[in-house]
Structure formats: structure tokens, C-alpha cells
Amino acid sequence: MIRVLIVDDEPPARRKVRRFLSRDAAIGEIREAGSAAEAVDAIRDFAPHLVFLDIQMPDGDGFGVLSSLGDGRDFHVVFLTAHEQHALKAFDAEAVDYLLKPVDPARFERSLERAKAQIARRDRTPDGGVAPALQRLVVEKNGRERFLAIERIDSAEADGNYLHLHAGGESYILRATLDSFVRRLDPTRFVQINRAQLVNLDSVREMQPLFHGERRVVLKDGRELIWTRRYRLPQASSSRLQARSSH
Hints:
By secondary structure, this protein is α/β, with parallel strands linked by helices.
């Protein structure tokens, strides 16, 4: 059963989230915290699997709660807020989702299903740690932020502390390193092919052998990338690529 902590300084908001959670048979014990300080104590004492975390509270904010707990977080977070401007920072904090108040029941249900899937994935990992699996993220294009579904990404290339994401003929900017980004993706779909680039295997049209074990990767949009021999295709990904090439 999934242990859940609801953190919000407004009792009606906590009751609403509790009511939504009570409809799911997978949810076990639910506790509440009404401030940032209470949230830190409750997380340490209760050890929840999932935290619905308000961002703005009188004695602090949700990001401060996470910072005070240090690294190695072993729970998942869904942020709750009435303000859209925190979305980018929320995804930088590796949140499962970002829900705007007043929370729509259908939207809440989708978020909870996503969190449950990540909790199940974590339980299957050898060390029991959080297995991050992004579904969407906030990216920038022409100075404006927007949501981008992970499955739409064809490839990504590193540029210092930023990534250029290519999706359906469009390019977006994400503040992240390639190393941290690739660890949060589905390894059966996304593969790093050289020091600065990764590809979505579903976006590959063909691969052509080159010298010294390297390969030319031709994407469906016509772009060509080089897969260096240092970066091997993981076993988990090879079956996906073989299944695609058989069609």
C-alpha cells in the first residue's frame, strides 16, 4: 500500500486531495502537514512513498522543504500550486507532476497514475531507489516556456549546461546536462550515442556501419548523427531496435 503525505497550509485543499486519494484502492495511510516545518518532520517520521506538496506556505515553500531534506530523496513529489510560474523549477526538482489549483479530478487521477507507475518501477530496482522516468517537461522556445511530451523528442544535444531538444522539426532549449537527463529517460527508448547526443530509437530510420566500429544514424527527419563505438547499445534497447527493423 502507498503511504501518502499531503502538505498544504489550507485545510480545504488538504481535504480535497484526501478525498481524491480515498477513491484509489492502492492508497494506504494518509497523513497531513499544514506548514513547511511540519512537512519536514512528517517526511522524516512517516517515510511516505508520495508527497503532494504545496509550493507557497507562510513559513516557507515546497522547494525549501526538499532542500532541507538533502540529497538521496526516496519519495516522489507532486507539486500543488495556484501559480504557473513555478513549473520549470518544479521539473528541475524531478517532480512527478505539477498540479494547478483548483485541481481538476481527472487531471489529479492522471497524475496519481503516473506517480503509482514510478513507485512500482522504484520497487523493482535493485537498490530500491527512486527510478526517475520523465513523462513531460517544461522547455523554452523563443523565450517562452511550454510543455513537451518526452515521447515526441527525436534527439538531444548538449551545449554546456543546456540541451537542444529536437522534436517533430522543432527545436527547444532545456536547462540540464546530458548525463542527468539521460538517466531520467526510458532506457529502452532513449540511448546516448556519443559524448554530446542522444536519440529516440523510435525516430531512427536506419543505421549504416562506418569505420572502427562507428555507425551513421539516419533519423526519420533526414538528420544524420554519428554513433561512436564507446557508446554501446544497451541490451534493454536492442530488442526495441530489432523489433522496429523487422517491420
